[in-house]
Amino acid sequence: xxxxxxxxxxxxxxxxxxxxxxxxxxxxxxxxxxxxxxxxxxxxxxxxxxxxxxxxxxxxxxxxxxxxxxxxxxxxxxxxxxxxxxxxxxxxxxxxxxxxxxxxxxxxxxxxxxxxxxxxxxxxxxxxxxxxxxxxxxxxxxxxxxxxxxxxxxxxxxxxxxxxxxxxxxxxxxxxxxxxxxxxxxxxxxxxxxxxxxxxxxxxxxxxxxxxxxxxxxxxxxxxxxxxxxxxxxxxxxxxxxxxxxxxxxxxxxxxxxxxxxxxxxxxxxxxxxxxxxxxxxxxxxxxxxxxxxxxxxxxxxxxxxxxxxxxxxxxxxxxxxxxxxxxxxxxxxxxxxxxxxxxxxxxxxxxxxxxxxxxxxxxxxxxxxxxxxxxxxxxxxxxxxxxxxxxxxxxxxxxxxxxxxxxxxxxxxxxxxxxxxxxxxxxxxxxxxxxxxxxxxxxxxxxxxxxxxxxxxxxxxxxxxxxxxxxxxxxxxxxxxxxxxxxxxxxxxxxxxxxxxxxxxxxxxxxxxxxxxxxxxxxxxxxxxxxxxxxxxxxxxxxxxxxxxxxxxxxxxxxxxxxxxxxxxxxxxxxxxxxxxxxxxxxxxxxxxxxxxxxxxxxxxxxxxxxxxxxxxxxxxxxxxxxxxxxxxxxxxxxxxxxxxxxxxxxxxxxxxxxxxxxxxxxxxxxxxxxxxxxxxxxxxxxxxxxxxxxxxxxxxxxxxxxxxxxxxxxxxxxxxxxxxxxxxxxxxxxxxxxxxxxxxx
Length: 747
Known about the structure:
By secondary structure, the protein is of the alpha/beta class.
C-alpha cells in the first residue's frame, strides 16, 4: 500500500507540474480539476458524495443514515457549501475561511450561519471548507460522506459540485421519483460524471412513497431503464438502483422504529452500500485512476498543442538560420576556392623555373641595353600586379560578404637592380678599344657600344635559346661578348631567384592571414528564441514525465514520448573553409639552370654575325587558360547570386544549383509574371536562341548553362588572337551565343 501511495504521489506531482507548464488560469475548470484529483489521489479516506438537484432530499438521506439531524434541512434549498462528514468521538463542526481563520464549535448549530444559502439563495464567498465530525461506526472505517449543494440552482454552486464530484470514490445520485431524469439531470450525468471517468454511481429514488400504488409500478420500470442505461462500474452482484424514502427513513431512525426504517428502503440500501464500500475501499486506485486518465488526456492534448506550436516556431527560425548559414558556407567555400586557385597561379608564376623561362631572356637583354628599370616597371611589375590582384580580389569579396577582418594588401617588393662587373678585355681583340675590367650597374650596352654591344645582346638570346652540342673544350673558345652575355644572364638569374624566394615567403604568410578574412561567425541566437527553446524543452520534459507516471500506474496512452532537443550551441563559433588546396607549383626543375649553363658552355666561338632577336608576337592563350577564365567567371556569377539571396527578404528560400543568378532572378520576379503571354516576335527570338545553343525547345536552365559553357570554350576569341580570319568568326559567334544565353535566361 505504501508503494502504491508513493506512485500516486509521483503521479500527482507530474499532473501539477504539467498544469504549471500550461499556465492555466487558477479559476479555469481544468486547473481546478487537476488540483482536486491530485489531492484526492493521496487522500486515504473513501469518500461518498450525495449528488442531485436542489430539494431532492440529499441532506435528509444523509441524516437518516447518520441517525440524527446532523445536517441542516428545510423545505427550501438550504445547503450552501460542500459539507464533509467525518468520524469523530463527538459531534462538532470545523469551518475554515478563505483568509485562514478556523472556526471550531461543538455540535452543528454553527452550520446555520456558514453552510446554508442566504436570503438571496447565495453561498457565502468567504468559506473555504466545512467539516462535521460524528461518532458513527460506518465513518469509523475511513469513510467520509459529502453533502453537496443542489444542482441547477446557481452556476457558482454547479462549479463547486463539479469540482467536488472528482474527489468522490462513490457517487449517490438522488432522483425524484415524481420527475425522473429531467433534461438537466441527463446532461449532468453525461458531462459531470461519464465524460470525467466517474462511473462508480448508485441511483437512489426518493419520494416514491408519495405516489399512488399504480404510479409506483410505472416509476419502478422507468427507474430500471435508467439504471440499465448507465454502465456503472460496481462490484459484481450489486445493483446500481435503490429506493429510499428519505424523510420517513429519518423519522423512523429518530424514533428507533426498525420496521419503519426497513420499509422505507433505508436498511437495504445501507447494507448494499457498506458491502460495496468494503470491496472498493481496499483498491481505491481502480476507482480514482479512470478520473486521472480523463484529466490526463486533456492535459496531454493541451501540452501537445503547445509543444507543436512552439516547435513549429523554432523550426521556422532554425530553417531560416540554417539556410543563411548554408548560403554563407557555400559562399565561403567558393571564395576560398577562387582564392586558392589564384594563389596557386601566383605561386606558379613566382616559381623560379617559370620566372626564368618567361623573363630571363628579356630581362638580360634589358640589362645589357641599360633599360632594366623600364623593363621591370613595364613588364615584370605589370604582370605581378595582375596576378596579385587576381588573388587579393577574393579577399575583398570575402570582406564584403562576411564583414570579418579587413584584408591587407599583398605587397611583394622587387630586389635591388642587378649589378654586373665586366671581365678583363682580351689582348687579341681589335674591336674593343678600352682596357681593363669595368664595373657596370644598370646596363652595359652603352659602355661597350657599336657592334660589340649588339653582339652581347644577340649572344644573350643565342645562349638562352639555342641548343649547342658539346664540342671539344679546346675548340669551344668563347668570345668576349659571349662572356659578358653570360654575366648578364647570371645576374638576372640571381635577381629572379631572390625575387622568387621573397615572393613565395610573403605569399605563404599572406595565405595564413587570409584565413581570418574568408570566414564567418555564427550569429548569436536571439534571447527570445533561446527562451522559447528552453520553454519547449520544459514542456517536452513535463509531457514525458507525465507519460512515464501514467504508465507506472498502468494507464495507457496513445502518445509517444518526445525526443530530447539537442542543445543549441549559443557560443561564438566560426566557420573557416578548408577545402583541398589547389596543387602547388611543380618542384623546381634544376635542369633549367643546368641546361642554360650547358648552352653557354657549348656556344660557338664565332657569334659576331648573330643579330638581336626580332620582337616576339603575343602567344595564343592555351585552352587551359580559357578554362581558368571561365571558372573565374562562374565563381563570380555564383557569389553574386548568393549576395542577392542574402539581401532578398526570401533569402531562406532554397535554390537549385542550376537556377539563375540573383540579378536575373530579381529582374524576372520584378518585371515578369510567371506565365506572362509572349508576342510572336518574342517566341521567335526564343526559338532562334534554342537553335543557336543547339538545344531542344524548353530545355532546362541547367542544360542551357551547360550548352553556353561548351560554346564559350570552343569559340572564345582569346583562342584565335593570331588567326585574324578565325578571330572575326569567333567574335561574331560569341555575340550570337551571348545574346541567346541572355534571352533564354530571362524567358
